[in-house]
Write a structure and sequence with these properties.
CATH topology of one domain: YefM-like fold
Largest sheet: 3 strands, mixed
Radius of gyration: 26 Å
Number of helices: 2
Number of strands: 3
CATH superfamily of one domain: YefM-like domain
Strand content: 15-25%
Structural class: alpha+beta
Helix content: 10-25%
Shape: elongated
Strand order of the largest sheet: 1-2-3
CATH class of one domain: Alpha Beta
Order of helices and strands: EHHEE
């Protein structure tokens, strides 16, 4: 993790983003106090269509109106 002062972060922002794209993490400091961290964006795992198929079950009477609720439909 590379610490940089706020002024340097403002003037060298494009360069810092390049370093982050390369995998580095940047800590932005006000004086000696860390106030922010710039990290590479994690796009997460790729979702596969249908990967949950068969893992969710519905009761056979799922869409039936419960007894006593007929007046509210």
């Amino acid at each position: 993790m590379k610490p940089v002062k706020i002024h340097e972060a403002k003037t060298q922002f494009s360069k810092l983003i390049g370093q982050v794209e390369a995998g580095d993490e940047i800590v932005v400091q006000r004086g000696d106090k860390p106030v922010a961290k710039i990290v590479p964006f994690d796009s997460g795992s790729t979702r596969t269509f249908g990967s949950l198929k068969g893992s969710i079950d519905f009761a056979d009477d799922f869409d039936e109106i419960p007894e006593g609720f007929e007046d509210y439909v």
